[in-house]
């Protein structure tokens, strides 16, 4: 049973992880691979709305996607996009990336090799990964403008879609930890974290929502 306080703290993290950007036309849309085909579906919706003339799907496999997406996350995303009516000529696949940094670096290399002029990127991720993806892209591809996007879902809708609310909280806590520690390692830009978000993060850690945390000394409120 998840307490009312824990759920309120989770909502603080959920709101913080989302960038609140309004989608606008960009040079390209990049969908970051994961277990969630909703990323591909959101990319298709944005493509059909004229927000990008080209889609890039990036991602290999991970322990959580190996069985569900045996051909690789990016390949399965592409297949879903084609099912939904996107022409093959409008989709590029980057099948090697195994983390967010590689998603950005390898997608950038793929677009450079294809001769695509990129001044702005519509970066599509899972809802709770928006800020992490944005911060990583700003670090690794500073010359382009980054516009964040994800499936328009509430926290409750996302938890229902995963079917495990505790796992969702663990993922939100883990994502925030990375925002706190990765800038010092050069993986992403540093971003201010409000005190109420840090306090919520600490309470959730102390309540045991820790399965997605890295083993390291962690900043806290």
Can you give me a brief rundown of this structure?
Helices cover 44% and strands 10% of the residues.
What does this molecule look like?
With 221 residues, the protein is of the alpha/beta class. Helix content is 44%, strand content 10%. The protein has eight helices and five strands, in the order αβαβαβαβαβααα. It has helices at residues 4-17, 38-48, 73-83, 100-113, 130-140, 155-162, 165-181, 195-206, and strands spanning 28-32, 55-58, 91-94, 120-124, 145-149. Strand 2 (55-58), helix 3 and strand 3 form a beta-alpha-beta unit. It is globular, with a radius of gyration of 17 Å.
Supply database-style keywords.
5-stranded parallel beta sheet, globular, 221 residues, 5 strands, 44% helix, alpha/beta, 8 helices, single chain
